[in-house]
Each structure stands twice: as structure tokens, then as C-alpha cells.
Amino acid sequence: MGAFLDKPKMEKHNAHGEGNSLRYGLSSMQGWRVEMEDAHTAVVGLPNGLNAWSFFAVYDGHAGSQVARYCCEHLLEHITSNPDFRGGGGGGGEPSVESVKSGIRTGFLQIDEHMRAISEKKHGADRSGSTAVGVLVSPRHIYFINCGDSRALLSRAGRVHFFTQDHKPSNPLEKERIQNAGGSVMIQRVNGSLAVSRALGDFDYKCVHGKGPTEQLVSPEPEVYEIERSTADEFIILACDGIWDVMANEELCDFVRSRLEVTEDLEKVCNEIVDTCLYKGSRDNMSVVLVCMPGAPKVSPEAVKKEAELDKYLESRVEEIIKKQGEDAPPDLVHVMRTLAAESIPHLPPGGELASKRSIIEAIYNRLNPYRSDDTSGVPGRARPSEASRL
């Protein structure tokens, strides 16, 4: 779905903040797609007496960015302002777990119906849709919210403790709902077209008469999971499928943990995630939000030293490869990467491996190779997606 550019757009949108004993950073990048359709939300301290609560979310739009953009601006309000969230009361006090879960579900259904009404008033139905994955963090609980195939996970005590389940049309319960609504699942897509079975928007798939909003071909109903917070909680990752397409849960957790041991800059960590996924072959928009809890890994002098030694080793190896090839025919960057990929290099970041060092290798290559031209093969943006995925 969607066309691709001749070279990826690697400019990034970044933000960071802290509060409520949390620190967060985020990064989003258009990549190979012709349009950026992702959006995100990061709010530390919520209104209406929920100062100690925070909300983070990633929205992965498709067939346009309108729904994703609207959700990033209004979904939180729909969740926290509906009566179900407060358990039917409008007063103070912390809402119960069941009230929060009910309010989240109601908020999703409300915003979806609201967006449909807006679209119909414009006399040209908006065909875009968006997944939504988020976390609502209270002083005692973490509420994981998922609608679609973006994903959230929690790292606790050095391992993946929890992750949301992707909503794919081929999942048995999702497929059953689709078929009950008169649809089919072909090539793992709803009616052979849409790759997710739950999403906000996508109103072309929500027109079956006699069926409620959660019984349509595509459902706007989120799955909500509540987890009690622990002092062993390290960090939460929210990301669109452009990240998860090329990084498994454990790989990304290991990579983030290793990065947190060498830098406190969460924007930098998130930028490394999206760059690494690009070099691993992701062809989608990419957005990631990293939320660090008090128990997150801290910068380690030993890890910083090993990282510096690794960068120095890579510099020496790139120089050796260029010199070995000869001045008359210096190697292109693809050759350098393939040579390094065939070697056993110690202390590469787990989960990221050589791909996570490609930008550094490129910088070293550009500095050491005086014969390079602007059209050097293999420079990011020149390599095609299929080639990038092999490196």
C-alpha cells in the first residue's frame, strides 16, 4: 500500500519531556513513503484533577493522515471527559480501574463516530484511517491501549514483561467478525485490501447495516490491558509497525537497554531506533515513543568505554578496507558494509547489530574516502530498499 520515494527522507521530528517521575523522548521519520501519515501524543500531567497521570500514543495513518492527526489532538479528551471514565460521577478522586478501561473504550467509539459525522458533513467521505497504540500511566497502574497493528511493550527487570497483541485480519477472532459482517480475508487483508482489522476511521469498512460499531469489517474498539506498576519497571516503547516489521520485541528491548547505558538523551536513542530500522529494511513511516520509568538503566562508564572502543575499531577497519581496495578504485559504501557484515565484530549493540552503526560507518567512510562523489553507491538515500535490507 502506498508509493515509494527514490530515496528515503531521513529528517526527523523530535520531542522530549519529563514529569511524574517519567522521562520521554520521541522520533518520527517519513522514510521511503511518499507521505508522512504518522502522528503522536505525549502529555505529562492530565487536566481535570489528573495531574499525576500521563498519556502517550502513536497513530499510524493509512490512505491519508487526516484521521491520525485528528486523533493525536482529540482522542485523550474523548477518553477522559466521558462519564464512563469517571464511573458516572464528575467529582474528584481517582477513577477505578474498571471505570478507566470503560472510559477508554467509550472514548474510542465516540471519536470514531464524531469523525464519521465530520466527514459526512464535508460531502466527501474521508477514506483515511489510523491505528492507535497508547499508554495511560497513573501513579499505580499502566493502561495499555491498542487498536490495530502498532504495538506497545513494557520492559521490567531486564526482560519483556508485556506487549500488546496486533490486530490482523487473519487472527481467528478478527476473521470471524469480518466474515460475520459479510467480508472476507484474502492475502491477509480485509477484502484483500486493508492490512489491519481494527482502526479508527476507515469508514468504507464500517457500513454494514444491522451491525453495531464493534461488529463491522473494521472495528474501532481498542483492547485495554491494566498492569500494576512495579519498582522493577524500566521503560515503555510505543511504535508503529514500521518499527516492528524489522525488530522483534526482545531485539528492540535489548537495543534500547544498551543505548540507555551509553546516553541519557532519549531523543538520540529514538533516532537510533528509526535509523537502525531503516537500515534493516523498513519501508514504512516510522514513529517511536520511549517512556523511561525510575527503574530504567542508567549510563554505565564501562558501557560508554566499550562503545568508544567499538567506534574506534570500526574507523580503523573502514580505513583498512579502503586502503586494501586501492586508491585507483576505492570501494563504495555497500562493499564496505558487506565486508564488515562478514566479520565477527565484538560488542555490537544487541538487537541493532551492524545496522545500528551504519550512520557512523558512513561518516567515517565519507571522511576517509577523498575520491567519493555525491552519487556514491550505497550512501543512505541512494541504496534501494531491497539493497538496504541485505545490509
TrEMBL record:
Its cofactor is Mn(2+); Mg(2+). It catalyses: O-phospho-L-threonyl-[protein] + H2O = L-threonyl-[protein] + phosphate; O-phospho-L-seryl-[protein] + H2O = L-seryl-[protein] + phosphate. InterPro entries: PP2C, PP2C_BS, PP2C_C, PP2C_C_sf, PPM-type-like_dom_sf, PPM-type_phosphatase-like_dom. It is a lipid-anchor. It is an enzyme of class 3 (hydrolase). It comes from the Eukaryota. The keyword Phosphoprotein applies. GO terms for cellular component: cytosol; membrane. The keyword S-adenosyl-L-methionine does not apply. Its EC number is 3.1.3.16. It is found in: Cytoplasm, Cytosol; Membrane. Residues 23-293 form the PPM-type phosphatase domain. GO terms for molecular function: magnesium ion binding; manganese ion binding; protein serine/threonine phosphatase activity. Residues 370-391 are annotated as: Disordered. Pfam families: PP2C (PF00481), PP2C_C (PF07830). Keywords: Cytoplasm, Hydrolase, Isopeptide bond, Lipoprotein, Magnesium, Manganese, Membrane, Metal-binding, Myristate, Phosphoprotein, Protein phosphatase, Ubl conjugation. Belongs to the PP2C family. Monomer. Interacts with PAK6. Interacts with the phosphorylated form of IKBKB/IKKB. This is Protein phosphatase 1B.
